[in-house]
User: What shape does this take?
Amino acid sequence: AQSVAQPEDQVNVAEGNPLTVKCTYSVSGNPYLFWYVQYPNRGLQFLLKYITGDNLVKGSYGFEAEFNKSQTSFHLKKPSALVSDSALYFCAVRVPTGFQKLVFGTGTRLLVSP
Amino acid sequence: GAGVSQSPSNKVTEKGKDVELRCDPISGHTALYWYRQSLGQGLEFLIYFQGNSAPDKSGLPSDRFSAERTGGSVSTLTIQRTQQEDSAVYLCASSSTTYNEQFFGPGTRLTVL
Assistant: This one.
């Protein structure tokens, strides 16, 4: 069965510093990987996805993520954090065949301090 | 509107009552998903519709939960005889194919007293 782990419940970073939100996955076969962000009292917004191709994926709001097959990771990164990046971040995985649903991690709360 | 819409945004009900939650997906999206997000928890998959295929109901937690999608567009999630543990935010999402990213609605916050 596919699964996603987000090992950190919360990440704290100062504005202007680089940020990393960690995600590891477990699937049989090649994964499709996604990052979503949720602002308070809002639905989830798509940030970026990895399907195939370049391991470094660039997405919305200056975020990027690196697919690492050997480490089964898909960490979310941003070179310079903004206070407005403070939100709940979800990593998700699915396989190209079989299960049609996304399996989400438990989320990581990012807090960017001024 | 251009996005996924859900109604109502908030629903407060008494234990034992039935509730219906509505989702209006992005026009042209063939895939529709329902998830549940409990306080402090991640997203729990409930049900998935793809075109005219039989829905994937594997995530429904009990037979009190059901969903339908009429005309390949609007979907209704029904919870019968609600229980306090049903209190959560119910999120709907749609995608243009099953392989593309899902676009989420704002959710319906259900509170069962």
User: Anything to note?
Assistant: The interface with chain B takes residues 32, 34, 36, 41-46, 49, 51, 90, 96, 100-107 of chain A (CB under 8 Å). DSSP finds no helices and twelve strands in chain A. Chain A has a mean pLDDT of 91. The two ends of chain A are 41 Å apart (CA to CA).
